[in-house]
Design a protein that fits this description.
Chloramphenicol Acetyltransferase; Dihydrolipoamide Transferase; OB fold (Dihydrolipoamide Acetyltransferase, E2P); single chain; 3 domains; alpha+beta; four-stranded antiparallel β-sheet
């Protein structure tokens, strides 16, 4: 039986995917598990595996095409089979075990978006945003295929943008007579100022969705911030002593980020709400501790996930982080690399940033912003001294975490860092 190849949905909010490249040619024999195509989603470029053996045929999407999730873009055929004619869209955008957490209904909803009150099609995410921002969808002109209303249209309308339907002009009003004004001496002309206007920069799919999601998070999630300056002396000492040990056992060099992941993971075990999620108006406590690391790639930031960070020894964490960084730089992240995070760390210390606040990645409860380690003059036992200091700023979703809980969690992170020599 012919098996369809569909545009995958890697998470609930995804509406479309961009085809980066086919890794097999049409007419080529494909084996189950072969890398079949590369897709640019809202988080990264990922490689998608073939789910069965067969010959690649009936390819309908080409490089650069943006396709709704769940739409069939090719077929894998057995000997003697032909491409099905006028096949209905598939009802799932999942493409393997890595995308298992994604409900099939999400893909179906993205393909068969319900109609709005005005008769236009609207995606489930756009409808949710419209409710949150109080936008009348009857006045929205959709920018999606066939006039479908997308999340971008709602956000533009909410901010006074141009996606709202135009309003018919009112009848002209006759001007009231104005008394004559005495002539004024002419004003000397001013030379015009030269203005340089370049063409607007086109965003990639990753950049566009990142802009949309940070806007949504900042405007809908009640952020709360707590900050600590931390003496990094124990952290530096632990890294120095552990570098040769981890290099010998796992073949990678341990970093400050690895130690931070281990410390945060251990603190999250003690604070289940900080490891929780805000879903459908309530709190869900996650069983696993999966920490996402914000990684800078060309023209974007991706979040790659270290799974089971609370259970893994430091060497395994360092190895995972190193492999994820290599795949991110090469645009080779897999679906499992970017899904399932329960908390995020964003470390800008390598860019000499002293301190910053980060925007939460919904539905997570928090994100930790890490600044650079730098020598500062501080009070040590009542005297002035120089210590390597580091700033940690925790952003929390106030619907899950109150101020005292956030402070206790951050304090446990600091205590774990002070004891980071035991992370083996």
């Amino acid at each position: 039986m012919a098996v369809s190849v569909v545009m995958p949905a890697l998470e609930m909010a995804q509406e479309t995917g961009k085809l980066v490249s086919w890794l097999k040619k049409e007419g080529e024999q494909v084996k189950k598990g072969d890398m079949l195509l590369e897709v640019e989603t809202d988080k990264a470029v990922v490689e998608i595996e073939a789910q069965t053996d067969g010959v690649l045929a009936g390819v309908t999407a080409k490089t650069g095409d943006v396709v709704p999730v769940g739409q069939t873009i090719a077929w894998l055929l057995k000997p003697g089979e032909s491409v099905p004619q006028q096949a209905a869209p598939t009802q799932t955008g999942r493409t393997g075990a890595a995308a298992a957490p994604v409900a099939a209904a999400a893909a179906a909803a993205a393909v068969e978006a319900p109609a709005s009150a005005a008769g236009a099609r609207i995606s489930p995410k756009a409808r949710k945003l419209a409710r949150e921002h109080g936008v009348d969808i009857a006045k929205i002109k959709g920018s999606g295929p066939g006039g479908e209303i997308l999340a971008d249209d709602i956000l533009r309308a909410a901010s006074g943008g141009a996606s709202a339907a135009p309003v018919a002009p009112s009848a002209p009003v006759a001007p009231a007579p104005v008394a004559p004004v005495a002539p004024v001496a002419p004003i000397a002309p001013v030379a015009p100022t030269a203005v340089s206007a370049g063409a607007p920069e086109a965003l990639s799919s990753i950049g566009r969705i990142m802009a949309e999601r940070t806007t949504q998070s900042w405007t809908t999630v009640p952020h709360f911030f707590v900050s600590r300056d931390v003496d990094a002396t124990p952290l530096n000492a632990a890294r120095t002593s552990l570098i040769p040990v981890i290099e010998k056992s796992h073949g990678v060099k341990v970093t400050h980020t690895d130690l931070l992941v281990a410390a945060v993971a251990r603190a999250l075990r003690k604070h289940p709400r900080m490891n929780g999620s805000w879903v459908n108006g309530g709190i869900t406590l996650n069983q696993d501790v999966n920490i996402a690391l914000a990684m800078a790639v060309e023209n974007a930031v991706v979040t790659a996930v270290i799974r089971g960070a609370d259970r893994n020894p430091l060497g395994d964490i360092a190895k995972q982080r190193n492999q994820l960084a290599e795949r991110a730089r090469a645009n080779k992240l897999q679906p499992a690399d970017i899904t399932g995070a329960t908390f995020t760390i964003s470390n800008l210390g390598m860019f000499s940033v002293d301190a910053f606040t980060a925007i939460i990645v919904p539905p997570q409860a928090g994100i930790l912003a890490v600044g650079a380690i730098a020598d500062r003059v501080v009070a040590v036992d009542g005297l002035l001294g120089v210590r390597p200091m580091m700033n940690l700023t925790l952003s929390s979703d106030h619907r899950l975490i109150d101020g005292a809980s956030a402070a206790r969690f951050l304090n446990d992170v600091v205590l774990a860092l002070a004891d980071s020599g035991r992370f083996l």
